[in-house]
Amino acid sequence: MGDTRRVVDGEQRSTVRPLRPAAPPDGGAGPVPRPRSNPAPASAPAEPKRAEPKAEPVAEPEAKPAEPKVEPAAAAAEQAGPKAGRRRRVTFAHALRVPPPRQLAVGAARATRAWSRRPSGRTTLPALFLLALVAATATAGALLVPAAVRKPQPAAVDATTNAPVQGVPQTGAVPGATGLPAVPGVTGLPGTPLPTLTATPGGTPTGPVVGPVTPGRPADALAAWAQQVSAATGISQVAMQAYGYAELVLAQTQRSCQLSWTTLAAIGYVESRHGSANRATLQPNGVAAPEILGAPLDGQGGRSRILDTDRGQLDHDPVYDKALGPMQFIPSTWQEIGADADNDGVKNPHDIDDAALAAGRYLCKGGRNMTIPGDWWGAILSYNDVRRYAQDVFDKADEYGRLSGT
């Protein structure tokens, strides 16, 4: 209750007495203010008021250096330590409330809208929007264009000649002959006169006809010529008829191409040994039996990787493409360039008549002239983009030209 100070009591001795509380300004005695405490229960009786003794005059205390005043509540808190249930003081940095992300977004949107109404915002904001649009377009183009623009696929695949070689000639003579087959009526060989072409309503020639229309393959009109050339080259007569017939059709439909049967025969040899690969045999109607199907183009063993393009309708494989028939067409290419050379109403890649004519049309695409070395090599590499393959076709076509004497 109050502080104690040194009070002088006389000159020679001094005693220490406790200070008494000062009297109220009005001179009356009253209770001393006390800190609030928990209210007493209603049942507890009120304490009687105590009369405080009157203050007695005391002498002035001696001068003493001021001591820092400590609040009773703070001192008690430091001695007692933190108590449960009492609010703890924290620093200002931790007490700062951070608005939730939604409020931040709303605030940013309002600030942006307010800025856009200013003169500087009206000029800058459209430019920023345009810049973002250009960046998004460029990003989309970088992702989509490479996926859409792919390297052109070859027309056919030959799994036996996959290793490329260097030094494919781009100049010099083309292999084999470039003229028409030595059909009877042109060279004096015995047989029927030179066949002529008839056209369908669409304007596409369908094949030679000797005299009146007779059942069977149109290429049978070249039977006598094919028999003699077959004996010299070792190519089956059925295959020879198909190659010669394709040259005749292209000579009248694409005159500037000047494709020789020797090139078609060389491709037929490299691709399927003239329709005899996988123990197949060319039937008299030109169809290979059983069907000649290449290995799945799954990217294994040096093969190309080409996913299914025909839903397995032609190659019976719904996952990967397979090369088809004597000329080993890829299904997607056959759907584009397939031909019906025997007038049976079906474009059959396993029919060597249809396949040889389709191969000739593919080689002549783009206005190529097969008597020009650059065009010849470009056509073969477009058929199968492997340099060793092109060199093998060149060598075989040149061999057939020498053996046949054409």
Please name the defining characteristics of this protein:
single chain; 406 residues; mainly alpha; 6 strands; 36% helix; Lysozyme-like_dom_sf; membrane; peptidoglycan lytic transglycosylase activity
What can you tell me about this protein's structure?
By secondary structure, this protein is mainly α. 36% of the residues lie in helices and 6% in strands. The chain contains 11 helices and 6 strands. The strands form 3 sheets. A two-stranded antiparallel ribbon has the order 1-2. It has a two-stranded antiparallel ribbon with strand order 3-4. Strand 1 (4-8) and strand 2 (14-18) form a beta hairpin. Helix 5 crosses helix 6. The protein is elongated and about 150 Å long. The N and C termini lie far apart (138 Å). The chain crosses the membrane at residues 127-149. GO terms for molecular function: peptidoglycan lytic transglycosylase activity.
Strand content range: 5-15%
How many beta-strand segments? 6
Q: Output the strand order for the largest sheet.
A: 1-2
For the CA atoms, what is the radius of gyration? 53 Å
Question: What is the overall pLDDT average?
Answer: 74
Protein name: Membrane-bound lytic murein transglycosylase B
Organism: Micromonospora chersina
Biased composition (Basic and acidic residues): 1-14, 47-70
Keywords: Membrane, Transmembrane, Transmembrane helix
